[in-house]
Amino acid sequence: MKKCTAAQDEIEDIYPCSPLQHTFFLFSSTREKGTLIARFAYSLRPEINLDRLQKAWSETTKAHPMLRTRIIQVDAKSSLHQVVLRRSTDIEYYDSDEPNYVPDLPIEVAPGNPLLRISVVRRSSSAQQQHRLVISLQHSLYDGWSQALFMQELERAYSGLALLPLPVSSFIGHLDQPNEGARQFWTSELMDLRSTIFPQIPSAYTPHPSSTLVRNVAIPKLASPQITLSTKIRWAWAQAISLQTSNSEVAMGLGTAGRGTPVAGIEKTVAPTMAIFPYRLHINPKQRVIDALHDSQHHYSQILPHEPYGTPNICRFVTGPTSPAALQTLLIVQPLGEQSPSSLYLEEEMLPQTEAFHVRALTLHCHLQEKSVETVACYDDKVISEKEMLRVLSILDLIFEQVCQEPSMLVEELKMVPAQE
Known about the structure:
single chain; 5-stranded mixed β-sheet; 14 strands; 27% helix
């Protein structure tokens, strides 16, 4: 097998990768260097002691095996496995008083290589600046939920609190069980799939989504709590796609946190449990909007038990001319997170990526805030122009504002053209 550079007695555990890890690792290792690698920078509070931080990092990695994980490929098999090492990644130290200095911390994504690097930029006593913690990691080791979790755990360890070890193997074991119910569900769910791909990409073209647009729309007064905001966003985006493609059948990729998986401690597991799966919706112009929302929410609840099955597995059972693997839109609705300040750092920053951080031509991140929804569109401007992207987002905003009122009008009676047109 293609191994990590570790002796046998340094290996704590080995088990298969999840479908998502498998996809992310292969995509990253076969694309431009830096693809699907993120860097986060944290301005540490002035009172933080670096020796104590080093000890806290050691305790955090000891409790959470994903932070000590590498990925290998077994000979004659297409599956990837993850190897948990007993030793942790050492903190790298850099000395600089340059305010904007950030170490590159490149990661070469290949079987057996480290997929995480952590560093501290130390400031001199006369610099009047905070030390800076910088973390670089590949997407097979984390998702948004787990990244926030492990920083909370680092903070707890620094405060002297004991950490509860949570193995990742129980989650992987759950995914690895034969799941005839999921196979039957997805076979039925995606039978004769005939949606139109949006946005359309040229044949054999690999998207490079390096452009970003940010929109913020106020949340109107809700008619009732029966329909979730996430449901309204999903349905509004499906309606917007239907308008662009002139097809009442819509399919897109959906991304969820995956924390509903029935595994003990899953909500506190520092590992990428995120699920990405195809979401199919039929738009009926003669249906009342409120009924369409209820149907959409019920439909989504039926999908949830089967979401971890993984797009590669799902694709094996799909019939029809449209493949889920070809879908070029991914929608991720992210709930309002905890707003309490950190006792470890003053500011968190996700640094610009050197290469693509998304696989599809268009990814929408919808961040639910207290009084508004922030939509971040990451897109390939060679596939969809900025002007067209702005228009589509305006249509999404317009539809969302209307469906928030859960109107009894027909779908075809919704206003679909922004005022500026």
